[in-house]
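Please fill in the sequence for the structure shown.

STRUCTURE ENCODING:
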């Protein structure tokens, strides 16, 4: 990547500086002693939230054994009767945020679809 093409692009300057190597110059965007950049190791915090296959399996077994909680059964019934707004409001009240509510409704919606496919 040449200096001119890097500066002409629409990328932010901070991104350009990260991608360019240093040039042994005293001035400019990529000034300083030329070094080879080390690859960054991924931190455990960046892996957080990624579901492993074992974890997924364990959760499916627990769901199979324990079943649904009472509010989830109520939401399932609301979704079957096409009262989506009421179901959304109920899950938001129980789970706290709209994002969690949407995820739960999506999960329960897939459960309904699977049960329809099974019959």
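FILLED IN BY: designer on duty
SEQUENCE:
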């Amino acid at each position: 990547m040449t200096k001119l093409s890097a500066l002409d692009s629409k990328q932010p300057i901070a991104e350009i500086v990260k991608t360019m190597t240093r040039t042994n110059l005293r001035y400019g965007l990529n000034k300083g002693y030329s070094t080879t950049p080390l690859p960054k190791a991924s931190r455990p915090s960046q892996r957080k939230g990624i579901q492993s296959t074992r974890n997924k399996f364990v959760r499916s077994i627990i769901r199979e054994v324990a079943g649904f909680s009472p509010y989830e059964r109520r939401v399932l019934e609301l979704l079957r009767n096409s009262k989506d707004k009421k179901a959304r409001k109920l899950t938001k009240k129980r789970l706290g945020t709209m994002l969690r509510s949407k995820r739960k409704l999506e999960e329960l919606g897939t459960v309904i679809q699977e049960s329809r496919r099974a019959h």
